[in-house]
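1st attempt posting a full record on here, be nice pls
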Amino acid sequence: MKVRFKLNGRSTELEAPARQTLADCLRYTCGLTGTHVGCEHGICGACTVLVDGEPMRSCLMLAVQAQDVAITTIEGLSQEEGLSPLQTAFKKHHGLQCGFCTPGVLTTIHALLTAEPDASEERIRDVLSGNVCRCTGYITIIEAALEARAHYKLQSGEAQP
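the predicted structure (as C-alpha cells):
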C-alpha cells in the first residue's frame, strides 16, 4: 500500500505491506535504525517516535496508519550543527549506558518539555514511567531532563536569554 507522510521534516512516499509496523518501516524501509524495537508490545518504550508531535509506540502503529502525519524519529531531533541541547545534557550527565532505550527516552522527554517546558521532576518521572531503562536507574536521565528545561523554556518564550 502507498503511504505518504513527513519524516523528520521531509515528504516521504513509500510502499508498505498492510501489516508492517511503523517501527519496521522506519528501520528497514527508511533505513532509520535509531528507532529500537524491544518488547514489540508497547510496554518498553524503546520504539517511541513522535507522531504529529505526540509520543507514539511505533511497534503498535502500522506504517499505513501514518498517512498524512508528521513523524519525528531520534534522527530528526538532531541539529545540523551538532547535538541538541537535550542530547548535550544527556552526554554531560551520562544519561545513557547501553543506549538501547535512549532514542525512546529522548523523544519522550522532547515531547514533554516542548509541551511543558517547566515540567517538575515528579512530572518528568511520571512521563518516563512508560520507558524501561535497565542500566541507569533513571537518576542521570532525570538530571539531564531537568537541565534541558532551560532550553525548552527559551524556545517557548517563557524565559529571557
